[in-house]
Structures are given as structure tokens and as C-alpha cells.
Design a protein that fits this description.
The structure is a single chain. It is built from seven helices and no strands. The protein is mainly α. The protein has a single domain (22-193), classed as Up-down Bundle (Four Helix Bundle (Hemerythrin (Met), subunit A)), CATH 1.20.120. Keywords: Membrane, Transferase, Transmembrane, Transmembrane helix. Pfam families: CDP-OH_P_transf. Belongs to the CDP-alcohol phosphatidyltransferase class-I family. One of its GO terms (molecular function) is phosphotransferase activity, for other substituted phosphate groups. The chain crosses the membrane at residues 19-40, 46-69, 154-182.
């Protein structure tokens, strides 16, 4: 089994490298791939809004592939920049919110108020997980504690869409995202209290 999975891994890496090489050879700006990923996520959000959960899940998977490619292509072309990282992160936030807005529209039109609230809480939790890390890392070197990062959230949305179990998935995202934010708050408090802050950071009592 280990040999089979190893062979699959090697084959997948070979195929990905070929795809990345071919795309990089076109000279396309990686930021364009990032933008295309956002557009594809908007398409997934539109399917969510009309109740096409399974189709939306498949579209999210395709968007995730684009999201993976932009960084790989940037490295292949030696075009990794600080702005590119900022741009990618910003558009990721828009993509995330678009998906939840699609669910908000669906549940609102369906008259399912409890699920509208649940989707709103999941949206807030998802945004705050990213914000808490970004804000913490303006003070301390690293804050990756907690579980509910963007890849985990997207995988859950894909699972919820494919199996038409979006309600339970939103509950998991809402609850675990909130726990992750609290974990990051506590961790940042501990790090700053211990004086493990970035150079130049002045703390007030």
C-alpha cells in the first residue's frame, strides 16, 4: 500500500510540475491566476445561492486548483513578490465571503432564518480566523495555532456540498472557527506577556 500511495504521489507531483511549467512558459502574470480563482469562486457562490450545492462544490475544487497554481507559477517564474502575497490573501478573503454570501442568499430566499444566522456566524468566524493571525503576526513572529484554516474550511464546504449536508458543515465551521480565534487570542497574549514580540514593537501596560 505504501508503494502504491508513493507512486501516486510521485505521479501527481510530476503532472503538477508539467502543468505549472506549461503555464509558467506562457509568461502569464501569477496575479491573473489569482484573479481567475476569485472569479471561479464567484461562480461557486452563484450555484450555492440557487441551491446547486454539488455543482458549487465541484467548482470550489477547481478554484482551489487555480489557487494552488498561482504560487507555484510565481516561484517557477521567479516573480514572487510581497505584493503578490498580499494580493492573493486579500482576494482569498473575498472568495471566502462570496461562498458564504451565496449560502446566505439561498437560506434567506428559502425562508430558513436559523440557517441564515448560522451562515452569518460561520462567515464572521472564517474572517476572524484570518484576521486574528494577521494581526497577531504584526506583533509576534508566528501565530498558526488552531485548526480551522482556509484549506480546512474549503474542504468542509466541498464535503457539505457533495453530500448535501451543508447545515452540519456550517455548524462545524462556526464553532471551530470561534474556538480557533479564542486560541489565537490566548496564544498571542501569552507570547506578548513573555516578551516574544517582533523587533521594534513597543508594548503599553
Amino acid at each position: 500500500m505504501a508503494t502504491v500511495t508513493g507512486a501516486i504521489g510521485i505521479g501527481s507531483k510530476w503532472l503538477l510540475d508539467k502543468i505549472v511549467g506549461a503555464i509558467a512558459a506562457t509568461g502569464i502574470n501569477p496575479n491573473i491566476l489569482t484573479f481567475l480563482g476569485l472569479v471561479v469562486n464567484f461562480g461557486a457562490a452563484a450555484f450555492f445561492a440557487i441551491g446547486g450545492f454539488r455543482t458549487g462544490a465541484i467548482v470550489i475544487f477547481c478554484a482551489g486548483f487555480l489557487d494552488m497554481l498561482d504560487g507555484q507559477v510565481a516561484r517557477k517564474q521567479n516573480r514572487v513578490t510581497a505584493f503578490g502575497a498580499f494580493y492573493d490573501s486579500t482576494l482569498d478573503r473575498y472568495a471566502d465571503m462570496a461562498l458564504y454570501m451565496g449560502l446566505l442568499v439561498y437560506y434567506s430566499v428559502s425562508g430558513r432564518t436559523p440557517y441564515v444566522i448560522l451562515a452569518a456566524v460561520a462567515t464572521a468566524g472564517s474572517v476572524m480566523v484570518s484576521y486574528a493571525r494577521a494581526r497577531a503576526e504584526s506583533l509576534i513572529p508566528l501565530c498558526k495555532v488552531g485548526f480551522m484554516e482556509r484549506p480546512e474550511r474549503l474542504v468542509l464546504l466541498i464535503i457539505g456540498g457533495l453530500f448535501n449536508r451543508m447545515g452540519p458543515v456550517l455548524w462545524v465551521i462556526a464553532v471551530v472557527s470561534t474556538i480557533t480565534v479564542i486560541h489565537r487570542i490566548v496564544f498571542t497574549w501569552q507570547e506578548t506577556k513573555a516578551g516574544r514580540t517582533l523587533p521594534g514593537i513597543k508594548l503599553s501596560l
